[in-house]
Design brief:
By secondary structure, this protein is an alpha+beta fold. Among the domains are: 104-228, Dipeptide-binding Protein, Domain 1 (Dipeptide-binding Protein, domain 1, Alpha-Beta Complex), CATH 3.90.76.10; 330-464 and 503-537, Dipeptide-binding Protein, domain 3. The chain has helices at 28-31, 90-99, 147-157, 167-171, 177-181, 210-213, 224-230, 234-237, 284-289, 303-307, 340-348, 352-359, 389-398, 423-436, 447-455, 479-483, 497-508, 512-529; strands spanning 36-37, 40-41, 71-75, 104-106, 112-114, 117-122, 128-133, 191-195, 198-202, 245-251, 255-260, 274-278, 295-297, 317-330, 364-366, 410-414, 440-444, 463-469, 532-544, 548-549, 565-566. Strands 1, 2, 13, 14, 15, 16, 17, 18 and 19 form a nine-stranded mixed β-sheet that branches. A four-stranded mixed β-sheet has the order 3-12-11-10. Strands 6-7-9-8 form a four-stranded antiparallel β-sheet, covered by helices on one side.
Amino acid sequence: MENNRTLMYVILGGLVGLCVLALAALVIFGGVALLNRGEESSTVVATTETDQGTTTEGTSSGSSATASSNSLRLLGGEPPTLDPALASDATSANYIVELFSGLVTLDENVEIVPDIAADWRVSDDGLTYTFTLRDDVTFADGSAVTAEDFKYTIERACDPATLSPVADTYLGDIVGCKEKLGQAAGEVSGVRVIDPQTLEITIDAPKVYFLAKLTYPTAFVVDQAAVQAGGNLWATTNPNGSGPFRLDEYRFGERLVLAPNENYYGDPKPSLDRVTYILSGGSGMTMYETDEVDVVGVGLGDIDRVLDPSSPLNADLREVSEFSIGYIGLNANQPPFDDPQVRQAFNLAIDKEALVTAVLNDTVVPAYGIIPPGMPGHDPNIEGLRFNAEEAQRLLAESSYGGAENLPDITLHVSGAGGAAGPQIEAIVEMWKRNLAVDVAIEQTEWATFLTDIDRRPNPYQAFSIGWIADYPDPENFLDLLFHCDSLGNRTGYCNAEVDALLEEARVEQDNDARMALYDQAQQLIVQDAAWVPLWFNKGYVLVKPYVQDYRFPPTIVPTLKYVKLAQ
């Protein structure tokens, strides 16, 4: 959800959750902070709280067995966009996956399954995909969805006038997309309409992960009439999507309301009458305990008491896993992080074990690699750059800067809703001061602006705290997308020709074991080059009222609300 379906996270204090990339954008999982889906997210632990110090006591109304209405109430983040072609963060993606749909989707087990496409076949050379569409799919207004709509959708996303930050990343494998983005072609030649129910897509090389990329919002079908009639505001006024829900109301800074799409083709149909996201308010925990919301993420200030078996809230608690990582990006194009030894020193100066235990209450898992646990390609034995203050000091002294005293001023940029960096960021900055004798300033930026800034070329930030959540379960979504020299998802300017060669070989490798071995080699090099400071792999802690049934928590951002029922 930066773009990782970038998807999710709102970073508590500026670290993530969705791609992706950061926690200022929390959202769907009932307000659980997510990293950028496949994209940046800024989240640390699942939470909707901006006040980490909240310790509200009281009796949870979770003892109630039934809901007072058939409306689900959640805390939500303000979405930077609801346009599928523009979404590069988890906050936006969490809404978009409920409003729109595509050829294929991910199920709750993160497996690729048919959606609007009833089935598909792949040519023997792995280059051409022919999709047969269902004949019962319509937009929310009842107008039919056809192959022409998908061609329009892809053409629009690859049109430079659309200004999509993610079209190249998720659709760039399609023949002609890059040419259209670069204004060298007027159409995407690799997309061909055979008939109203048959769409053909040709890609530039046989890539086993291509179908997974189509589960990202950029490939979700949009209604040309709605886009053209609504102008720049079409997605927030009348998106007319084909997803399980439609946009019923959106009041900026107040609430976003979804209602069932009566023409939804999928199974199951939504059973909720409304889903109301509250976009402003006070403490999420207080709102949960006073029955103002039905689901809420648990922040650091409350985790101990909800984990206590004697707490009335404990029975409502769920622990969820995510394919996500929180990290600090070090800009290889800006001093002092243009020197690999400086980047390595800043990695080695952080005691992640102490940080996770003393500051984050073991609510996350220390990260020494890039690919999260549970994902294909995860290496549980990766050594990484582990805490070593003496080695960090030696590397800094031997760097081109000759020691801490010669470094330029350094600013760490974060994004969050609390008005100040969280304790985890403050602890990291203190470790750098204690172990490297380096003072690092912290600058906080509003979430949408933060995303815009890190998308700029060159990236104006020396260092930034954010996160990434998988758009789809493939190492390509972490390594190739975020570290290849030419990738638009590469926010740090990191470039290593040996890494690029491994990633390019993995793109077309058809043997899965061989692909994973190539990605593991690339990951080892990336970690040693210290392109990032990997911090932790995220877990989430969420309270769910007992009358909320079938509320699901997949490890990445997929549509889930159609499964939810409220006991009456």
